[in-house]
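Possible race condition, two jobs.
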Amino acid sequence: MIASLRCCLVACLVFGAVACSDNTDSPTSVNDKLTGETDLSFTKPGYSFVTFFNLSEWFPNQDESVRDTVTVLENVNGDVTLDFRLTIDTNFTLALDTMLGTTALSTEMKRAIIDTYLGRYGATLDTTDKDNMRITARPQLRVTSEGIQDYISSRGNTSQPFTIIRYSMKVGDSWSFVTPEGTTLSRRVVHHSSEEDYWVGFLGLKVFKTEETAPDDPLVEKIVWVTNHKFGLVGIHLHLKNGKEVPIKFL
């Protein structure tokens, strides 16, 4: 579901050093707070998630290089706070630097990219121990039986959710959101399964795929959010500007 969520995005990006709606809703109503059931099994405080990194092409020793923990810290009527902790080592950062194509950048440029992503996702980075560098964050989302929204785009403002999916949506529906910095983000439903065509481990799921453009992002061309009405967010796929795709799946 929401394991690692955008913080997994931070993990894959931070070390790069490291609307219009086609349905009957207006963009404002699309981003109104979701209603529906809020007491879901995977949003109960203490619930932990398993993350599936399929990055063996670039990280052959990923099990030793990446250790993550994602737990539901709090659920207040559907507003869910996650406790995210990621531990990585220098092998991971070097491989990630190569994958992202940032090896030729200066240290100053890499630092600027890191700071951009840390600020955008409310994360902190501790590099004191190079073999146990830690990224921590507490992202917030709204998760109900009707769909999923994030408060990351509004920098934690819970009065301004940005919809990832409403399960009543159809392929082609699109909507937008203006960040506090004035950047317009756009999302569009590009896929809705008619059969179990998305696999997380040995589990086949019917899913929605929501595509998000990433304007002015230094490394990412687009993000594809993968959601399921029973398990919530089950995948996030990063499409990089260098043509590579980074899939992250979780339950």
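Job #2 (started ~2 s after job #1):
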Amino acid sequence: MNFLKTVDSKHFHSEIPAKPMGKYAHFITVRVTESYPLFQTDGELNKARVRAGIQHGEAISRLAMFKRKQSTPERLTGRELLRNYQIGDWEKCDYNVEFSKTTPDCVLYGFAIGDAGSEKSKVVVDTAYSITSFDDSHLNFTLNAPFENGTMSRQGEVTSRINSQDHILPQVFFPSIVTLKDPTEAGFLYVFNNILRTRHYGAQTTRTGRVRNELIGVIFADGEIVSNLRWTQKIYDLMMEKNQIQLPDPLNEDDVLVAAQEAIAQLIAEEFIPHTDFIGDALNPLLSEVKGITSDETQLKAMLNQANTESTAYAQKHIFKSTEKAKKGSKKAAANVAE
């Protein structure tokens, strides 16, 4: 079943291949914070000391959004849809507990279940970095837990339930490239839809963590392209040249998106690989077509069913057979040891 008319079918496989076949779909996104999210490890916000730009070589600390902070919310969005429409072995899937091994989530995003088998992710996400420095992108808040009457005291005793926590500020921008290896058309749309739909990232996602994904391009290539860090540094250079970074004021979103588009176009032109770019005006027809599919329940269910059919066929052909082969090998080895 074909869904897209704006993308040449040569960029997609007819079925999910077992071995790398050299087709890559890169989703070029800018993640924009819209509340006070937490991207942290061991109670502290994640950050890295790096060069500010490619041309501007001074060192700065940047907030870091680790890959799992990006991929986990997006795959959970896809799993939620599969449950909603009861597609595939959705009842067997319990994230980080049990995997069906057959759904688009399991096959595209991967899984690991100890001796029960594993599948390498075909969705590649790298650490994303804030354009602005750590010092200008976060704020420390004091948190409390009041009693039922709304105060911090009860019967003359004052609670000690007071804490402080660093939060990322709204309107902080994280350029991020999400790569799907060897996509089928349905798999491409599945990952695309997850990126567009996901709204919360980081810790405490029920109360904060609102993030919007602005897609500025899709690039098809026969290999991986520029890193998130280099793209972020290029954006920083372009905005500094235009005097668009006036800290501590937040960046203008329109300026960021224009610089991000210009930066990725310049960087991809330096790559030594064939590529087909949907950037700027060229992206609009594709984006409109994808939104038409994902916002229509009938077409959305058809896409999800097609993605599940492909992932189930892949699992039957490659995952379960390899698992059975591994089990037979273990039994044979055990028998040899017993002898």
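Residues 9-142+161-330 form one domain.
Logs attached separately.
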